[in-house]
Every structure is written in C-alpha cells, then in structure tokens.
Amino acid sequence: MINLKNKKPNILVIGDLMIDHYLWGSCERISPEAPVPVINIQKENQALGGAGNVLNNLKTFGAKVSVISVLGNDSIASELKEMLENIDIQTNMLIEEENRKTTKKSRLIASQQQVLRYDKESTQNISDESASKILEFLTKNISKYDVLLLSDYGKGVLTKKLTQEIISISNENKVKVFVDPKGNDYDKYKNAYAITPNKKEAIEATNIDIKDDSTLEKAIKELKTNYQLDLALITLSESGIAIYDDKLRIKPTVAKEVYDVTGAGDTVIASIAFAIANGLDIDKAVEFANLAAGVVVSKIGSATASMDEIYEYESSLHKSNSFSNIKNIDEIKAISKRLINQKKKIVFTNGCFDILHAGHVKYLEEAKSYGDILILGLNSDDSVRRLKGSNRPINNQEDRAYLLAALDAVDFVVIFNEETPYELIKLIQPDLLVKGGDYIGKTVVGKDIAKEVKLVEFVENKSTTKIIQRILNNAEND
User: Fold this and answer.
1) Burial class (CB in 10 A: 0-12, 13-18, 19+), 307
2) Does residue 412 sit in helix, strand or coil?
3) If we measure between CA atoms, which residue out of 421, 423, 422, 408 comes closest to residue 350?
4) How far apart are CA 456 and CA 440, in angstroms?
5) Which of 139, 214, 314, 436 is the 20 to 30 Å CA partner of 324?
C-alpha cells in the first residue's frame, strides 16, 4: 500500500450531525408498576454520530477537516459543538435554527443487550435561509478543499435542491463529491463523483434483487448510468466492496475477526475519500478502505482506525495467522458473545503448557473433539511462578501462547494472570470444561458456570516435569 502517513488533505463534510448516547446497566427485576424491566444504570457515555463519525474517522487518519451542518438552538447542539472542538474541528459553519431539535439517539443497554432506543430530533427539511448560508460559504471556500463528502442520514440537512446545488458548485470547481446516500430517491445525488450505498440500499434504489455477480453488475451499472456518476460503489459487508466505472470488480474484505460492524460504513466512505484526496486510484483507495474497515470491525462500538493501526493490520495479514488467534480479555469476551449467539458449542481448558509435547497435543485434540470451538486459558508467567516456583516457566508466555495458537485443535488462546481461571470462565460462559484425569475427585474451578465437565486422561509418561528432569539428568551425565 502507498504510504499515506502524515498526509493531510483538506476535506469538507456536509451532512447530518448527531450524538450517540449510551446508558449501560443491569437488569435484575421487573417493575411492580408495569411488566417492564428495571435497569440499574452503571455507566453513561456518548460519541459523535452520523456525519460526526465520518469526521472522527477523517481526523484519525490525519486529514484537515471542516464541517457544515444545521442544528437546533438547544443544549444538545452545545454538547455537540464541544465534542467537535475537543477533536479540533471548527464549529463556525454549524447553523442553528429556532424550533429545530439537534439529533440525539439514546440507547439503553442491559447486560450487553440493547433494550430500548429513544431519539430527540427534527427531520423536516432545513429552511431556505439555512440552505442559502451553506451555499454562500461553499461558493467562497470550495477551492480550499481536495474532496467533498456528503453524509446523508435523512435528517433534513441535505435536501434535494441543496444537494444538487452543492454538487454543481463542486463540479464547476473540479472538486470530487462522495456521497453516503439515504432513501431511495437517488436523483438528488445526480452528477456526484461517487456514491457508496450498502447492498440493501442499492436493492431499494434500483429495485434489482442482488443475489449473484450478474445481478450485482446490473444494479451497480444502473446506479452509475442513471445518476451520471463517475463511478458507483456498493459495500457488500463480509464480501467486500464492489466498484464499477467501466467494468465491475469486487475487492474482498480483509477482516480477520468481526466483533461489531457499527460505523463501518462511515469508515469506508471516509477512507475512500481520504485516499482519493491523496492521489490514489479507486482500486487502491478501496483496498485501503477494506483495511481500515478491518480494523474498525475488530473493535467494539463505533470506532476509528489510525494509520499506525492500519499499517500494523496490513502487515499482520502477510504473517502466519497464529498471532491472530491470541486474544486479550476484551477480545475474547466479544468473541464468546458472538459464538454464543451463533449457538456454537464452546469448550474451555486451561493450563501452563510450559514445554509443549505430544501429550499436550493429544489432550487438546480430544478436548476440541467435544465441541465447535476450543478456547485455551494460558497461565501468565507470574501465575506459573506462583504455582510452580521461581524457576518456572521455562518458556515465556508469548512463546507458549504462539505455539499453542499454531495448533489446529486450538481456536483461541487468552492469557490470564490469576491463579485460577474462574473469572475468565465466567466471562466466556463455555458449554464444556475439560481438565486432565488427575482432577478425578478434585473440585474443578468453573464447574458451577459450565454446563458440563469432562476429564481427559493424560498420555502416560508425557509431562513437562519429566522432560525437565531428563534434561537435568543428561546435563549431570555430561
């Protein structure tokens, strides 16, 4: 990939700004007043949403970013402006309208499950006066920008008339316009440089059921032709991104693990616009977008991808995938939740696995045979020392984790620092716990959490202790 670090194109975003507000809590009872859950709120946070998430992505890439939007004259607008100023984005072109509500989406989440969402917003078209102010600013300043990005969330800022005038002014000044569309009337985006609907949006806009490459090509070609675009793009979720200028090609996704797709569409259009502004062609720009999206969907919640993260991620794709199977606590929590939702049978085992030998491998192969996914909890170096003495482990935790992650039987390795893996088991919620045969008659940690416990006999005469003893004996004989 061409080096885009330290590149700072000047990009203008026009669209619907909003705040994404989250209330996190737990539910342990039903209200006596009505058959509804009572949520005990434990945490609250908020983030830039809508076009604000696009701005956040562009700033993280390193771009110089400006924004035009219309807000209400209310406290939410003040909050939003402060959030923008905190990431060094000027708010002088945020127009306020009386009797308009700035959009704030509040989500109530209990035990990682969204229970309720309530919105405060206005969705009527902005006034002619506000539209005139936008066009006046754009006409005076359009020459400053490398690209223009329209982020349409259907909240009334990008009216059909205004959108067409914005595109016209930009085209006259040879500034490319990228559009993240909304609704099914794409006439408002006619003559833009490119649009980036997802598959569902493209189906609604063209009335073509996209179910294979043939129907995909028909739909994307219709978008480009009907709306006189330079090129059309369709995001295809896990299948990648389709491009059409004079021919169709599909750039496959490069995501290794998908934890959350929230905001991935914003990342895609932001990264494509950023790459084009830096002189990349569309194919390279989409490849960059796929890398950025691969980073973002590996995180929880709306997220951004820094250039360092993107380059590190790209580099990891060309290495053995063993490193990708080693997860931290937050990652394994998200993976476990996804696996449970997919109704996969999760098997968990744990241990020190200091010097990996055939006995370990056979044990792990049998453990994996009991389910769909084997997650291995690996004692950290400190944990091993507490259990086995100061002269252990022989191999450090990074080496032990890598060797285990390279085994076909092991799907994920997660290092824990406690003497027992109880908290890790509670987080993973496995269907089955597997321990060695030496646990017969002993208490298995986590048996109160898992649905089942299985004990697997060790291979006779195969142990790390015996290997170490043989090495010491040979050294003495030498």
Assistant:
1) middle
2) strand
3) 421
4) 10
5) 436
Mean pLDDT of all residues in 428-441? 86
How many angstroms separate the CA atoms of 140 and 22, rounded? 39
Q: Please name the helix (run of DSSP H) or strand (run of DSSP E) that holds residue 105, with its range, or none.
A: strand 103-110
Distance of alpha carbon 148 from the chain centroid:
24
Is residue 300 within 8 Å of residue 261, measured between CB atoms? no
**Phi and psi for 317 in degrees, rounded to 5?**
-70, -20
**Is 362 assigned to a binding site?**
no
Task: Indicate the helix (H) or strand (E) that contains 402.
Answer: helix 397-405
3-state class (DSSP) for residue 128:
helix
Residues 306, 391 contacting (CB under 8 angstroms): no
Which domains, from first to last, does the chain contain?
Answer: 10-317 (3.40.1190.20), 325-477 (3.40.50.620)
| 396 annotated ligand-binding residue | no
Is 266 assigned a catalytic role? Answer: yes
Tokens matching residue 167: 């595109």
Cβ–Cβ under 8 Å, residues 253 and 290: yes
CA–CA distance, 455 with 437 (Å, rounded to integer): 5
**Is 199 annotated to bind ligand?**
yes
Is 201 annotated to bind ligand?
A: yes
Q: Which single residue is written with the structure tokens 């890598």?
A: 402
Does residue 260 register a pLDDT over 50? no
Mean pLDDT, residues 204-224 taken together: 95
> Left, alpha or beta for 243 (phi > 0: left; psi -120 to 50: alpha)?
beta
SS3 for 86?
Answer: helix
| CA pair distance 103, 50, nearest whole angstrom | 9
Ranges 65-74, 75-84, 326-335, 462-471: which has the least confidence: 462-471
The tokens for 430 are 């496995």
Which of 266, 354, 411, 431 does the annotation list as catalytic?
266
Q: What is the DSSP string of 267-288?
A: HHHHHHHHHHHTT--HHHHHHH
Instruction: Determine the Cα angle at 269 with ends 302 and 170, to 5°.
Output: 135
d(C-alpha 470, C-alpha 478), whole Å: 12
Q: Which amino acid is at 266?
A: D
Q: Two tokens at 412?
A: 């994920």
